[in-house]
Design a protein that fits this description.
elongated; transport; Alpha-Beta Plaits; Alpha-lytic protease prodomain-like; 3-stranded mixed β-sheet; mainly alpha
């Protein structure tokens, strides 16, 4: 017997609700900062390939926070007859679109930068007149890029905690991108300084470095979204370690006196899990509906990330579902 889908939008515990609100606030702060940043960069970038790449990178930097905000909003919609599982996977779709956009534009920018280098195009950085004095535009570029090294780093560190609390891949990827942006900023500064020193190719090399950084961001976003959409085994954010929730479900079910063996298949929908739990009873003919309902509720209450559970009695477990007793004891000990 399996439990029917819950048919409602999951509610978050208070700590996770606060984390979601903080994530939304930080996403809006990021968008506001990038909006001002891209306008100023557009005005001062001149013909520098590195500054052009930095400008495009900051434009693309708006995509992940937008994906998080849109995904979280759509995920709150209630299930319908046409969408009985709800819209929780909208977060993965938004994450996928963000990754594809970053990968595509990063690839285009890399091609453009390489062609600029091969054609030996020399950038022309002019001068500004400030209070009647000629000021090399490169100094303004370097000064602005130095200032912009710090806000993304701070935003990335602030986003990391709510991302991990929510196990939200879109917010986590955005935080990682922000934390790594300082390297692209330093590459831009080096490229402009190279122009000032007469090293014309430094500008194109800096643009290539920034392009590769964008491609890497796109790849990480794309990989993170696809692992959910192809229903891979859930992993702890930022690691290759299995998420502890599936093991916790096994441990809870194994404590029931009528259960001899247990295993489950868990899939991600956004930041939530759907669990198909398989149990081998000691005496198959004596399992009651009430026991299955109690088992489902036991699993449902094991962790806030579990949105829906099906408990399915079987005669034996397949090889992929079997777990060791030591793993069950370890999971229960860590959840205590």
């Amino acid at each position: 017997m399996s439990a029917a889908p819950s048919g409602h939008t999951p509610s978050l515990p208070e700590p996770q609700r606060r984390a979601a609100r903080l994530g939304a606030v930080l996403a809006w702060w990021t968008l506001g900062y990038l909006l001002v940043d891209t306008v100023i960069l557009f005005l001062i970038k001149g013909n520098s390939q590195a500054m052009q790449a930095a400008w495009i990178q900051d434009l693309l930097g708006m995509v992940p926070p937008l994906a998080y905000l849109i995904g979280m909003r759509v995920a709150r919609r209630r299930p319908t007859r046409n969408h009985p599982y709800g819209f929780l996977q909208s977060m993965d779709v938004a994450h996928l679109v963000a990754g594809a956009a970053l990968l595509a534009f990063g690839g285009f920018l890399l091609f453009q930068s390489v062609m600029t280098l091969l054609r030996a195009e020399r950038p022309d950085v002019g001068v500004f007149v400030v209070f009647g004095q000629d000021v090399w535009q490169g100094w303004i570029m370097i000064g602005f890029m130095f200032i912009t090294l710090f806000p993304p780093l701070a935003l990335g560190r602030l986003k990391m905690k709510p991302a991990k609390m929510l196990h939200n891949k879109a917010l986590f990827a955005d935080a990682q991108m922000n934390k790594a942006d300082w390297m692209a900023g330093l590459a831009s500064i080096a490229g402009i300084a190279g122009i000032g020193l007469g090293i014309w190719w430094a500008d194109a090399i800096a643009a290539i470095i920034i392009s590769v950084d964008i491609i890497q961001d796109g790849y990480q976003n794309l990989r993170g979204s696809l692992t959910s959409m192809v229903e891979a085994t859930p992993k702890t954010l930022g690691t290759s370690e299995p998420h502890p929730v599936p093991a916790l479900v096994n441990a809870r079910l194994a404590q029931l006196p009528w259960v001899r063996e247990v295993g489950n298949r868990t899939r991600e929908e956004g930041q939530y899990f759907y669990v198909d739990a398989y149990v081998v009873p000691h005496r198959a003919n004596e399992v009651t509906a009430a026991e299955l309902i109690d088992a489902r509720e036991l699993c449902q209450n094991a962790h806030w990330k579990i949105h829906d559970v099906s408990v399915i009695p079987v005669r034996e477990l397949g090889p992929l579902l079997r777990v060791d007793r030591a793993d069950l004891d370890d999971a229960e000990r860590h959840s205590a």
